[in-house]
Amino acid sequence: MPGHDTANRDKVVVVTGGASGIGRATALVMAEAGWGTIALLDRNEAGLEAVAAELAAVGARGIPVPADLSDLAACERLIGEIVSVSGRVDAVVHSAAIARPAIAVVDYDTAKFMQDFDVNVTAGFILARDAARHMIDAGRPGSIVFIASINAQGAGVGSIGYCASKAGVIAMMKVMAAELGSHGIRVNTVSPGPTDTPRSIDRVGEKVMERLRERFDGAALRRLGEPREIGDAVSYLCSQAASYVSGHDLVVDGGLMASVYVAAKPE
Question: Cα 44 from chain centroid?
């Protein structure tokens, strides 16, 4: 994790999905790295208040912003509302996403598929676009980080909406990086591998997660990721240590995607 940076004390970062999991961990890591104000977006109002209290304990101001990111009309107002409260926005981290229990392609209805894109892609687009407009008008550089997934690069059986939308997130990031770089706005993605989050528990169940916490052979490191490890990657991309990094998908998967099948041993 980048060290505490006093230059970030007056800066504001917006973190979606901030009430739990990777969003919560990212907010805490960035607070510890010196970010002074963190606007937390989530549907879970009680969770937002709890994380805001955690941020206060490490010296940062947490602004709870209850928001349903599937309501795209409401998303159009969020950056303006945050700027009116905090005075500025210097970074956006879009961590909120829909990840459903496995559903076969032939059983996946259109409404679910469209909702996956609304939350995972379109809401992030709106927030990043509006934050970029604010940064450009203010004449300040900034950083945008989308949480993508290794599922953007390989099929997750039963997850067509999630995989397709996360692939869209990476494509969107690259276009934004290319267009916004001249304004000093860096845009990147972080693609986590399997991580121990409430979303993972919702998908596979606590019993399976207990077994995977003991050992996860899918990754070269033989374990699941921790939310804080993803938060560390996001904090790096938003920091001056990554001042020449843009248009990049940072994979944080414990070596999962480096693995290949083991050929049969000769007899």
Answer: 17
261 is catalytic: no
Fold classification of 6-195+227-250 is Rossmann fold (3.40.50)
Give 184's strand partners.
Answer: none
Query: Of 108, 162, 244, 261, which one is the catalytic site residue?
Result: 162
pTM of this structure: 0.93
Better-scored residue on pLDDT, 15 or 209: 15
The whole-angstrom separation of Cα 27 and Cα 56 is 11
Predicted confidence at residue 168, as pLDDT, reads: 98
User: Does the pLDDT at position 119 exceed 80?
Assistant: yes
| Long-range pairs, 149-156, Cβ under 8 A, ≥24 | 149/191, 149/192, 150/191, 150/192, 150/193, 150/251, 150/253, 150/256, 150/257, 152/191, 152/249, 153/191, 153/257, 154/257
